[in-house]
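U., I forgot to send this yesterday:
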Amino acid sequence: MSTSSTSPPVVLPHPGMEFDPVTMVGGQLEQVRRLAESEGRDPADIGAALRVNPVAESSVDAVVEVILRTRDAIDVDDVFVDFTYMVDNGGVDQAMELLQQTLDLTR
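Result:
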């Protein structure tokens, strides 16, 4: 299993589009928090979960980069990574290994 960070971390809606998790997630979260505040709610009460959907060619390093960049720039409460497409014939054991590698690199 390669951990090269040159592979794409996620599928993008438009080919050739550069993925920037901080811009994509941050802009949406900021808008939701502004709307909450305009309705009299405390924007700090609005939690956020980051979902990362790596493609088959993704690497653990690319997934970790998305998590760390987003964590460092945006107030994200939780992270969910769907390793489905990164797992080949290794099944659950391989998914657990990918999860452990990701946890080790993001803690």
